[in-house]
């Protein structure tokens, strides 16, 4: 306890954010003009005006807005980007992506995870799900970066040698699930119904159930996928997953662009969650996902960036804005998918997709202290209007970039302050990523 000037007793907490605006994303849908946020250990213990707390560390929040840390509901921690771009999708996959995937070593993934996690910290993402190669190497980086990460080893049966083996997933769960003070989770990851055998999906679903973890996959991403599975099995991708016992509330499906109304009904009925990836869907010419229909039917929808191969960055602010614009285009309705809903998808929606809605996704007392501060002093975020004219949510969704995030806090720990990342060695990583990526390309024969 410490005494205030007026003699009032003040409780000491680890971290106190003073005098910031806040968009808590709580059930009340409030925007707060000036509040303090008290953090003790890994939790938010109080949020309100002029809190009677003293911080062991205090951050001045004036001219900043506090938001829940953003949650990336679909990404892969790849090492290369901007390489061999602008090719037709199937050629790009077979000539570039699969040779790279096959050549990855744990050292490549260590460098890749350093770069990806640095980029996420710098753009306000505090939780992500990664579906890719050598997940133990990526998870080890998360112990250091301080982020909250779910790792789903990307199992691929066809072609051989480009993915992880389902048989290794169980060991990974036993070795890594719950590490990093509970920040690291392991899920089952199956690349897609066209690249994994039916029995892998069935076994993967059983494994997810055995350990009480989620199952992540790509689903109905392109018309090519629908045609391929129709030809191979006489079923659509969604029907395949149902047949193989994988349409459950444990399943997080990325994309779902090419789905018919009755398939959306089925996804809803089975409690499947969907990660929407607007940039990737456009860049790969996959199509525009029926997001408004998913939301109307109450399906949990989160936002993802997909990988830096198909985006090419991990900025969820861009995804929020693009998610809105795409639904405006398809619906012809200027009120479709309001800014609040886009922000909900990038926070609470994605948290629900990851089964973490009780812990993260909003700034509320008792929840994990995953908080970002956005600097409102840049001209593209002027003017800041208050009271009945409050424009903060629109500014965040339509005008802000990831680079406006000045402070990133995850699990109560400051990972970045004043744009300085405190947990990863940025300059060292830049050199490491450059040389490792060059080496990877050489090994992949590019
Ligand atoms: Zn993906």
UniProtKB/TrEMBL annotation:
Domain Amidohydrolase-related: 66-415
Entries under InterPro entries matching the protein: Amidohydro-rel (IPR006680), Metal-dep_hydrolase_composite (IPR011059), Metal_Hydrolase (IPR032466), MTA/SAH_deaminase (IPR050287)
Keyword Hydrolase among UniProt keywords: yes
KW Hydrolase (keyword) present: yes
Keyword entries, A-Z: Hydrolase
Short name of any one Pfam family annotated for the protein: Amidohydro_1
Protein's UniProt name: Amidohydrolase
Organism whose genome encodes this protein: Thermostichus vulcanus str. 'Rupite'
């Amino acid at each position: 306890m410490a005494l205030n000037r007026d003699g009032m007793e003040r409780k000491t907490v680890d971290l106190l954010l003073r005098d910031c605006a806040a968009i808590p994303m709580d059930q009340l849908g409030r925007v707060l003009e000036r509040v303090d946020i008290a953090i003790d250990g890994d939790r938010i213990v109080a949020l309100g005006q002029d809190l009677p707390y003293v911080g062991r560390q205090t951050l001045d929040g004036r001219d900043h807005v506090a938001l829940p840390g953003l949650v990336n509901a679909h990404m892969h921690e790849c090492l290369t980007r901007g390489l061999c771009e602008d090719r037709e999708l199937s050629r790009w996959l077979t000539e570039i992506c699969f040779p790279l995937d096959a050549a990855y070593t744990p050292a490549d993934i260590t460098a890749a995870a350093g770069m990806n996690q640095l980029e996420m910290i710098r753009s306000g993402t505090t939780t992500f799900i990664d579906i890719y190669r050598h997940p133990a190497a990526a998870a080890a980086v998360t112990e250091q970066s301080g982020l909250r990460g779910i790792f789903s080893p990307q199992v691929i049966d066809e072609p051989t040698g480009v993915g992880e083996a389902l048989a290794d997933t169980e060991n990974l769960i036993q070795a890594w699930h719950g590490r990093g003070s509970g920040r690291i989770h392991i899920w089952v990851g199956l690349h897609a119904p066209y690249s994994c055998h039916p029995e892998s999906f069935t076994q993967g679903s059983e494994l997810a159930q055995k350990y009480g973890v989620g199952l992540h996959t790509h689903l109905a991403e392109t018309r090519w996928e629908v045609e391929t599975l129709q030809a191979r099995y006489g079923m659509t991708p969604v029907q395949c997953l149902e047949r193989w016992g994988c349409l459950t509330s444990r399943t997080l499906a990325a994309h779902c662009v090419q789905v018919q109304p009755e398939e959306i009904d089925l996804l809803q009925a089975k409690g499947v969650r969907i990660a929407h990836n607007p940039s990737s869907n456009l860049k790969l010419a996959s199509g525009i996902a029926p997001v408004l229909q998913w939301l109307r039917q109450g399906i949990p929808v989160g936002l993802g960036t997909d990988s830096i191969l198909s985006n090419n960055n991990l900025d969820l602010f861009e995804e929020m804005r693009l998610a809105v614009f795409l639904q405006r285009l398809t619906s012809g309705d200027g009120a479709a998918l309001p800014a609040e809903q886009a922000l909900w998808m990038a926070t609470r929606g994605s948290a629900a997709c990851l089964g973490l809605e009780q812990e993260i996704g909003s700034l509320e007392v008792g929840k994990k202290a995953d908080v970002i501060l956005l600097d409102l002093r840049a001209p593209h975020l002027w003017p800041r209007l208050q009271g009945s004219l409050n424009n903060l949510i629109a500014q965040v969704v339509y005008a802000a970039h990831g680079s406006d995030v000045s402070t990133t806090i995850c699990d109560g720990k400051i990972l970045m302050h004043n744009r300085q990342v405190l947990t990863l060695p940025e300059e060292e990583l830049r050199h490491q990523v450059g040389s490792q990526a060059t080496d990877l390309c050489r090994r992949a024969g590019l």
